[in-house]
Amino acid sequence: MICCLFGDGFSFDNTFHHLVSIIGIAAGLAFEKCGSEQVAALLITEISSPFLHARELLKEVGYRDTDLNLAADMAFGVIFSVARMVGGPYLTFLTLSAYNPMLIKAMAVGLQLVSAFWFYKIVKMVKYKLGKAREKVGLPSPSPSLQTAKLD
């Protein structure tokens, strides 16, 4: 949390994520509730971390904009999306529907909101990366009329 505040790149979403996580874990310990839910939440939130770190490492060692980096980006995006947008809402539902203190319920919702925000950002990143990969191999990008077409 302190690194979020005093590091080079302060971001509100990252600080909010860490604050919600710390308060949620502390609330679970204080109320002596939701141990299994907290372990499941840690699994769901951290399962994509190795792929996130692989993306950054590949960029640091000079593999930016390569097929290997694209594969790491796509693996991260898929694993994050499935874990946080399928497993996350299910766990949030279980936490909200159980007899838990309001603080724990609020932290579950807060973590899911952060996950939804990051999911939005990851979808934008995946679209950008796939568009860049299409240009690299010489494929035309989808026509704007197809992108903005509305279904009747």
UniProtKB/TrEMBL annotation:
Protein name: TLC domain-containing protein
Signal peptide stretch: none
Keywords: Membrane, Transmembrane, Transmembrane helix
Compartment(s) of residence: Membrane
Keyword Transferase attributed: no
Chief site of localization: membrane
Residues passing through the membrane, by range: 102-120
Membrane topology: Multi-pass membrane protein
Stored SMART domains: TLC
Domain TLC: 1-131
InterPro entries: TLC-dom, TLCD5
Annotated source species: Hibiscus sabdariffa (roselle)
